[in-house]
Amino acid sequence: QVTVVESGGGSVQPGGSLKLSCTVSGSAVGDYALGWFRQAPEKEREAMSCISRSGYTTPFRDSVKGRFTISRDKANHTLYLQMNNLKPEDTAMYYCAARSNGFCSDSWILFNFRGQGTQVTVSS
To answer: How does pLDDT run across 4-54, given as a tens digit for each residue?
Structure first.
């Protein structure tokens, strides 16, 4: 059984920072691709970035490029999302997902295991 659990969300003012964590538990999860997605109210879920089994990192979308960083602690099966200079438009539910074939994808439904999400709210 593989579980995906996100943490680290919260409320911050514009310009603030948050670091999200995603812990993946189960056998062989070190070989999985791990990715971050987000879904803002009344919007489609969108892919943020992903780290594959080989360590390849997919680029962030332009709206967060230079402000968000993804990293992975393979030994502890943890994925991180460092978010700096947060803006109100970053307000969303942030989800982590794991894909057992080890390859990244922009499609949420191709990830076998998905977390419940952690809320990020950016507001003054």
So the answer is: 999 999 999 999 999 999 999 998 888 999 999 999 999 999 999 999 999
The answer to whether residues 112 and 103 touch, using CB atoms and an 8 Å cutoff, is no
CA angle 124, 12, 113 (to 5 degrees): 135
DSSP E strands in the chain: the ranges are: 3-7, 10-12, 18-25, 33-39, 46-51, 68-73, 78-83, 92-99, 113-114, 118-122
Give pLDDT tens digits for 74-115: 888 999 999 999 999 999 999 999 999 999 999 999 999 999
Residues 42, 43, 49, 50: is their CA dihedral positive or negative? positive
Q: What is the side-by-side order of every strand in the sheet holding 78-83?
A: 3-7, 18-25, 78-83, 68-73
Contacts of 46 (CB under 8 A, 6+ apart): 37, 38, 39, 61
Nearest Cα neighbor of 104 from 65, 73, 70 is 70
